[in-house]
Amino acid sequence: MRRYGKHTDEDDIRSRPNRKGNRPRTHTRPKHEDAAEAMVLTVDRGRLTCLVEDRVVMAMKARELGRKAAVVGDRVALVGDLSGRKDTLARIVRIEERGSVLRRTADDDDPYERVVVANADQLAIVTALADPEPRPRLIDRCLVAAYDGGLEPLLVMTKSDLASPDKLLELYGALDIPYVVTSREELESGDAADRVRAQLDGRITAFVGHSGVGKTTLVNALVPKDRRRTTGHVNAVTGRGRHTTTSALALPLASARGGWVVDTPGVRSFGLAHVDPSRVIHAFPDLVPGTEGCPRACSHDEPDCALDAWVAEGHADPARLYSLRRLLATRERTEGD
To answer: 271 pairs with which residues across the strands?
Structure first.
């Protein structure tokens, strides 16, 4: 049924009044081409501390970003008050594409993945050689997350005055992971920080490790002007430390080439529900050519896997295949195994 005649004008069109008195909503969003570039340093209850040039600016996420969240290390675009003065607040209107992402889940059955750090170049996995005892399965899980997220791993072993690093070095030798061994005395003298800093120069490095291994103590030695609260207490019954870092924080590294240290909260588990096991093989480029003869959807840990014959023919070190399969198996184990 035709409501209006041929010759209608705007006076003939009935419209509903806007009760709120504001402008009608539109799907057209501003592009914010003049927005300032910034880096997220830390996130606390919806407030994000960002670095804009040489100023620290507090910001909040713009509503137009929806459920998309910014994390430490993200490159973002800010508008609003960028002065950095007290009680001012800018808005994050855009989160730039990430170069790398370190993710974890609470456990292997948890479908919700948590992004820990974005755009880091390197993951420093900190483990004590004693007090608390090293947990190789947790180290393996961190390695899988690093390879999957596009980060290069670095193994940092602390408390070498209490135990020898030889056993761990033998276990991870075939992976060709760079490592640094430190003692408590070296941390106090600053020698340990100097050797670790040499591995971090000019890079963004996220530090991860379970509680009590000395991770935050090491970070304080690397960035002494921004000390974080630490503790040396390890529960004598459980062998676990108490969490002292409650949020991730990016700190500038004082070195000739610059760099950033990202201290993350201590972890007691590192779920890998988000990791597709088929991607782990790409962390072993020397083994990838041997997968050409594998059956379709091969897990690389089954009787028909072509890697067995390929390695037996001398194309790669058998220890490398063993390491690959150990990392693949971490998806089926718990960290306490």
So the answer is: 105
| Residue-wise pLDDT tens digits, 251-290 | 999 877 889 999 998 777 788 888 887 788 888 888 999 9
Q: What's the CA gap between 29 and 35, in Å, rounded?
A: 14
Q: Is the dihedral of CA 220, 261, 67, 80 positive or negative?
A: positive
| Whether the Cβ atoms of residue 205 and residue 123 lie closer than 8 Å to each other | yes
What is the DSSP-derived secondary structure letter of residue 175?
Answer: G
The single-letter DSSP state of residue 198 is H
| pTM for this model (two decimals) | 0.80
- 44 vs 70, 208, 263, CA distance in Å? 11, 19, 14
| CA distances, 219 to each of 41, 213, 214, 229, 233 (Å) | 15, 12, 9, 11, 17
CA distance 323 to 337: 16
Which three-class secondary structure state does DSSP give residue 109? coil
Q: For residue 161, give Cα distances in angstroms to 134, 181, 219, 242, 272.
A: 14, 10, 19, 22, 33
- The residues pairing with 158 across neighbouring beta strands, listed in sequence order, are 128
Rounded Cα distance between 49 and 180, Å, is 31
Q: Specify whether the backbone of 159 is left (phi greater than 0), alpha (psi in -120 to 50) or beta.
A: left
Summarize pLDDT for 304-336 with one digit per residue, the tens.
999 999 999 999 889 889 888 888 887 665 444
Tens of pLDDT, residues 88-128: 999 999 999 999 999 988 777 777 888 999 999 999 999 99
Buried b (16+ CB within 10 A) or exposed e, 263-272: bbbbbebbbb
Contact 149, 224 (CB under 8 A): no
Mean pLDDT of the chain: 84
